Amino acid sequence: MDELKVFTGNAHPALARAVAKYLKTPLGKCEVFEFSNENIFVRILENVRQRDTFVIQPLCSPVNKNLVELLIMLDALKRASAGRITAVVPYYGYGRTDKKDQPRVPITARLVADLLTVAGANRLLTVDLHAPQIQGFFNIPVDELTALYLLSNYFKERKFKNLVVVASDIGIVKRSRDLAAILNAPLAIMEKRRVGNVDRAETLNIIGEVEGKIALTVDDEIDTAGSLVGVISALEKRGVKEIFACCTHPILSGQAVKKIASSPVKEVVVTDTVPVNADKKLDKITALPIAPLLGEAIHRIHTGLSVGAMFEQS
């Protein structure tokens, strides 16, 4: 693994350290800081010429700063003659703006893809994109990992009886169906619509039988938790016995943690694709480590093994 180099910006250094530990390689040395005029400076402090380099940087809060950090790091590695540069973006910010659903709006997920490529990324490694078509926005190879098996293994150990998996909206149905199949549980679907461009959704209907069951809601991310609270309320009205929730990306912005704390949900299981800091910690919130999944994928990319085979064995 001498030719493998793993670097990180300031978005999630704890995750990068955990990945480097899994790979049994030291974290690459670099300077990444902001001047008083808010300009970001990057300097790679070791030789990367013709090395296989990976930059771990989720596009989490502060999103725009972390994005620019990543772009400048990619450019620095490109200009330092790195052999191959892989952008490891566990959480792909702007992924929800993936289509023109209103007049005169951008497709920002595509713009970010172009920025990463122009900056120097030869490959993207990410986890559970908001929409599968985002892979097609890139002209470079994209490896999309899934936390589905990590989450399903956790709930398998709980051995729930009379469980129903609930897709939080139509867009997450395929992933929810896969989770339901693994857990040998039926599937229900929450039909809802978003109200304008605000972070608010109106719950409309539940498709499927949930009365008297233990419900497990599934989503790719929890942002303000408004949608989650709406889903929980609708499930309660339909006579659900207990409610659990899971997602890959715990964005938990604004009053999300307070909403979860005051809701009747028993447990929210997430992964640490973004930092789960002290302000996000709650007895109800369980964060599973994503580093082994990312580390194994990086090892396979570096050695030319199949990344897809990781999930065929699961």
User: Between the first and last Cα atoms, what is the distance in angstroms?
Assistant: 25 Å
Count of discrete domains: 2
Rg (C-alpha, Å): 20 Å
Structural class: alpha/beta
Query: Taking all residues together, what is the mean pLDDT?
Result: 94
How would you sum up the major sheet?
7 strands, mixed
Question: How many runs of DSSP E, i.e. beta strands?
Answer: 14
Strand arrangement across the biggest beta sheet: 10-9-8-11-12-13-14
Run of helices and strands: EHEEEHEHEEHEHEEEHEHEEHH
**Count of runs of 4 or more consecutive helical residues:** 9
What's the oligomerization state? single chain
Shape, principal axes of CA atoms: globular
Under CATH, the topology of the largest domain can be stated as Rossmann fold
Which percent band covers the strand fraction? 25-35%
CATH class descriptor of the largest domain: Alpha Beta
CATH architecture of the largest domain: 3-Layer(aba) Sandwich
Helix content: 25-40%
